[in-house]
Amino acid sequence: MRRLTLALVLLMATVLTACSSGPPKRVYPPQASVQELQVQADGNWVVKIRIRSFSTVPMRFSRLQGTLSVGGHEAGRFDFDPGLTVGPGSAEIIEHRMAPSPAARDAVAAALAGRQSLRYQLAGRLASSDPGTDDAFDYPSRLDPVPGLEGVLR
């Protein structure tokens, strides 16, 4: 009986020790994409950028550097601190105001006027201060005019 009790105590101690470390912490490269592009009355754009974390730990993003191209034309470059924490396996949206190049502005205007989709590419680097990472990303996709919302592509 004493051996059985000792064995049970050791087994429970082992199980508790294994559980105390919690799930494994894994950090994967994040992704950035365009959630929405709004053309403003002054011709500038408000771009809603979706930052997605695939990691199992929260990530505090301290730098977003990249280039946005639409319709095969470079719209603009950016480099700023989004000041954003994204939870494990989650995504957050940030807004960035930019003055697009004339060729990109014309491509978006043509897509909106013709109610057609428009290819885009968002590429660059995302850095986090916690847990210290600096990863490249490259995201090609399409934006479509939103019915009922003038000057908006999603």
Structure description:
The protein is of the alpha+beta class and 154 residues long. The chain contains two helices and nine strands. It has helices at 2-20, 102-114, and strands at 31-39, 45-52, 59-70, 73-80, 84-86, 91-98, 118-130, 133-143, 152-153. Strands 3, 4, 5, 7 and 8 form a five-stranded antiparallel sheet that branches. Strands 6-2-1-9 form a four-stranded antiparallel sheet, with no helix packed on it. The radius of gyration is 23 Å and the shape is elongated. It starts with a helix and ends with a strand. The model has no long low-confidence stretch (mean pLDDT 91).
Unreliable spans? none
CATH architecture: Sandwich
Percent range for helical residues? 10-25%
According to CATH, what is the topology?
Answer: Immunoglobulin-like
Number of strands: 9
Q: State mean pLDDT (0 to 100 scale).
A: 91
Supply the number of helical segments: 2
**Helix/sheet category:** alpha+beta
What is the overall shape?
A: elongated
- Note the run of SSEs as H and E: HEEEEEEHEEE
Distance between the termini: 69 Å
Counting structural domains, the number is 1
Over the alpha carbons, how many angstroms does the gyration radius reach?
23 Å
Which strand-content bin applies to the residues? over 45%
Largest sheet: 5 strands, antiparallel
CATH class call = Mainly Beta
Structure described in brief:
21% of the residues lie in helices and 48% in strands. The chain has 154 residues and is an alpha+beta fold. The chain has a single domain, classed as Immunoglobulin-like (Sandwich).
